[in-house]
Amino acid sequence: MNMKYINKVLLSTLLVALLVVGCDTDELHNLNINPQAVTQINLNFLFTAAQLGAASGGSAGDNRYIDWRTNIGMCSYAIQHLAQTGGGIAPGDKYTHNPETSNAPFEFFYGDELKNLGEVLRQTGPGGYDEGNKVNTRNAARIVRAFLFHRATDYYGSMPYADAIKAAGGGAEFFFPHYDTQKSIYLDLLKELDEASAALSSGNPDDGFAAADLYYDGDIAKWKKFGYSLMLRLAMRISNVDAATANTYVAKAIAGGVFESNNDNVWVPMAIGPSEWTNQNGISRAFYPGDGGQPTFLSKTLIDFLKGSDPGTVADDDPRLMIISGGIGLWTPTDWTPTNVDPLAQKGMPNGKDQTTLEIFEGGPVVQDATYSKINVKMLQDDEPYMLMNYGEVELLLAEAAERGIGGASGAKAHYDAGVKASMQMYTPYDASLTVSDGAVATYLATYPYDVTKPALEMIGEQMWVNKFFNWWDAWSDWRRTGFPVLVPTNYPGNVTGGTIPQRLRYHPLEISGNPNFSAGSTKPDEYTTKVWWAGGAE
Description:
Helix content is about 45%, strand content about 5%.
């Protein structure tokens, strides 16, 4: 959606000001000043609001919208963590076109979070009211903004970036923003992360930062780790298409210091109130019966992986099987009633089926609630915390970097083992019962030794895939970059990809028709099958 939507609130405020203050020359001159850029703005509040909104990547008052339509509807099904026959938003299951799924990130991304972060950066930048006074708030905001833009460009490819930053930061209005290539966006995001992470310091003056910070309560060391860990992710994401830049920034990330334990994980705290639309977990709300009601059936691909090479024994199971799965049962608005929690009995639904083809596949009538495993409801309460990034991912990225000789990383096996362990032991913030012992991790690693069971890069890719359960948008990105795990596409009649797993989202139709800069700068062709730059497409 073009930048006029960003400025609707600003323009409305100007109209009200005209009616209130009169029309002398000085007052008319002052109307050229961004009405949001007043000294009374509480930058701590804006920063906190942006952190909260980052949980769904820009929710603009509806915390479940993007998760429901896109993170779940496209990504969770495309990478075969979930499956369904119908009755919910699931274009990723059968590769169909759902306008809301494709439109949602573009429609909401340039709203609240970008505007809030832009105002924080404007006020703390050159000439701003808080220039030099809120250095850590400013640089933490740069890290969160980089996270959000990276998510957005991974969905679409080329995006309005430089013009969007100027508009959100109180600069000139951009009704028709120019598009920046994904390559140029990534290069600037890496620069931003480099500068911001280095500039964070416990010695900086920053009144109120600790109280405003939802993620780390003002812990600067952890913020620096977040910045460098995100840098590592972005550098590895472009490693197949820009090896030199990837090498440089992987080395910078390692030298700067990345996550060291699950205590560094980025969790966004959620709460039942005061507003369900702002404070509750958008993923949980999308699934919760009586609210979003999206089906929670786990995919056959995922359950088969978690059950190990011998489905007839639990000895080789992944310890996450009965963490991710709550069993087979019925979930209603008032109760979860499991009917089978035996690990051996867990069964995933095949992707790409409707009820008729599902019954053909199963060889007879199927009652879905009595047949297939569902997401563990212990992780789907409305006040569950929302994970943005975790230590397990970082260790697996370091394993891949070491395996491929990128950025001076070494010790691939040690990083892989640490990544698997961290990934298995990161679920207790959802519920204290979701624990995995060190012994269970050791047994699993001995059962499936690194670079023996399968090639090293395939094993890393598979573990990254499981690690990002709930962060399906990024699991989809990992799969598009690495090709792991090896997924068998579906070919449902009438699909729009020719039976191939989607590679990106389509742009919003209002942007296509309303922005004259769209044609020159957008990723082409605007189809689900077009690869973004870091996956091998055009810049």
